[in-house]
Amino acid sequence: MDSLGRVDWLKEGFFDRDPRRVARSLLGKLLIRTTPGAVLAGRIVETEAYLGESDEAAHSFIGKTPRNAVMFGPPGRAYVYFIYGNHYCLNVSCLGEGVAGAVLFRAIEPVGGIDRMAEARGIILNDKCDLRKISSGPGRMAQALGVTRERDNEKSFVSPKSDLRIADDGYRVPRILTTTRIGIVKSAAMPLRYVIAGNKFVSGPKLTL
DNA sequence: GAGGAGATCGTCT
DNA sequence: GACGATCTCCTCT
Fold first, then answer.
1. Using the CB atom, is residue A101 less than 7 Å from strand C?
2. Residue A175: burial class (beta carbons within 10 Å; 0-12, 13-18, 19+)
């Protein structure tokens, strides 16, 4: 972690808030995966908030099931699910025990261990490669960080022993844009997607300001 | 560059 | 048995 300089690790209280506030606050923070051979780090540039049982688009809308139980658990835990038969998506639980809520990590800007993340994505690093393909989009980002449900679901983001944590290195987000969420049908009009304005690693269609 | 469709499987009804 | 918080490839312009 020496290469990252001095950072503050996020604590459980950070996540014990409304998912909308957590989603905004997470922008600009560093998502860090510690592996035996390298430290993978990415700056969070895009998030989506999923509210509790009042949000039709959230998995928690149908109530607690084995799949979504983490959303109802304590804050600061990883909720990982498998989607479309191909991809994993990484979320962090918000609010306290018994209250559902989560924030989906949609994209990060690679800042450390880039070669390892590219390798995990099957991308050859050279002058022509598009770095956005490493971690721009929930499925891509999860693959770059080696996130799977078996390995990471229910894992704590706030335990000092965890290999999946979030840090604040003092980066100041210039401006935040709020848009509707991507890929959902129900409650699609709710503006619960947050992105760092102008950041090229944000996924989805280009945003006009 | 934009748009459409297929891939593929866990989860819930 | 249907559907999904996605990605990639292919076609068309």
1. no
2. exposed
